[in-house]
Amino acid sequence: MKYKTKHSNEKIYYIVAWIVIAIMVSGLLIDNPRFGEFGVVYIFHSILVFILSLCLLLYPKNGTAFLRLIIIVIASTYFYTLFLFYPETSSTYVFLCFIPALSILYFDSKLFYFSLLLNGISNIIIYGYILLADGVQYRFIEEDPIGNFFNFVASQIIVYFIFYLTNGRIKKQQLYYEQIQHSERLRTTSQLTAAIAHEIRNPLTVVKGFLQLFEKDSSFNDDQKGKFTLMIDELNTAEQVISQFLSIAKPDKENVMEKVNVQAALQSVTDLLHSYGLLHDNRIDLTVTEDCTILANTIEFKQLLINIIKNAIEASDIGDVVLVTAEREKDFVVIKVIDHGQGMTEAEVASLGTPFYSLKSKGTGLGMMVCFTIVEKFKGTIDFQSAIGHGTTVTIRFPPSSPSY
Ligand code: ADP
Ligand code: MG
User: What are the CA-CA distances from residue 241 to residues 76, 236, 244 (Å)?
Assistant: First the structure.
């Protein structure tokens, strides 16, 4: 379909280009007052027609910005040549007013501004020439220079307005097209990732099974068994993350709702991330003012906080403290994760949750997407307050499991 549209667009372009060339050649041959002379003017006019025709025909095969620039410069020269060397055809002045409109056809805003500027300067020079040097050839301008000049300015404003509206609409369409492409890519990627996650789960189960056997095997000493336990714990975490990813890819599956004790969950998450924070000497400070429960899934709730606290630690400077607080505020349980790290701009905050958006060299850009999905799933909200150089406060609100809990 796309190919077909492109093909028919090209056909229309060539038809229009050939019509334009035919008109230009007619201007050279039919009733041209300089035709018999074959002087410098006529030769210059012919060369311009030839180069312009060549550029128009080459453009579809080699549509570079440079060729567009050449076409606009040659076309401007062509129209000004017609105006200057054929003063008896006064209607040529109309073309001068609409030269910048040509560049609108190429959807190139820089080229449009260039053409508008070039046309303005050329027109002022032409006015100067007519009023100061020329005697009688351009009576319509000489008799009413101000009126003509205002009309020229008005025509440039109209052309600009057409450009502004067309350009805005095209940009919107482009954005829409990119979004569709992006979501299509994302759909394919998430299907693929879900399939891979599923495949990884099987070997993990086998390895875990053997480790559980070794854990009970008396031929291993306590030190070795301790390491097996640690390995099993790590495999459990990996399994949980995979299950979670699969549950996000298939949102209706494994949607187990339970009462989650916020303090206990936060405690276990901060304990888990304690050693991660120590890598850069960051401490996690947990303050829970009221014991409260929410309706969610414990594993997913923990995953949400792990992602957010990890981001806070990663954004913090060496030695900074990350604060985690939980309290009840009216009809919500409010959890805050506060860091005093690098912070984000408004645009960066707006990009959070976009899949694969990451400013870290080793980031996946999936953490926030997972967080948004989890928060939405359990009817919560998530807000970000951030200032570059001052840090970020992430505020998560969940409805409590019961009004009085
Ligand atoms: P990742 O951590 O893999 O980069 P995330 O989805 O978790 O992906 O985060 C996306 C991006 O958002 C990060 O790369 C980071 O630039 C920004 N970000 C998230 N949280 C914070 C924070 N607390 N402070 C500063 N930037 C943050
Ligand atoms: Mg992250």
Answer: 63, 9, 5
Question: Could you tell me the pTM of the whole model?
Answer: 0.50
Measured in degrees and rounded to the nearest 5, phi and psi for residue 64 equal -85, 165
| Nearest ligand to the C-alpha atom of residue 364 | 1
For 106-141, the pLDDT digits (tens) are 888 899 999 999 999 999 998 888 888 766 778 888
Report helix, strand or coil for 129: helix
Give the model confidence (pLDDT) of 49-86 as tens digits.
999 999 999 998 888 889 999 999 999 999 999 998 88
Answer whether 373 contacts ligand 1 (Cβ < 6 A): no
Q: Which atom of ligand 1 is nearest to the CA of 339?
A: 23
**Encoding tokens for residue 64?**
């570079």
Task: Return residues with CB closer than 5 A to ligand 2 (ion).
Answer: 311, 367
In 3D space, the residue among 311, 300, 301 whose CA is nearest the CA of residue 263 turns out to be: 301
- Residue 126 Cβ inside 6 Å of ligand 1? The answer reads no
Q: What is the mean pLDDT of residues 175-181?
A: 79
What separation in Å is there between the alpha carbon of 206 and the centre of ligand 1? 34
| Amino acid identity at 31 | D
Least Cα distance to 82 among 19, 34, 121 occurs for 34
User: Is the per-residue pLDDT at 339 higher than 90?
Assistant: yes
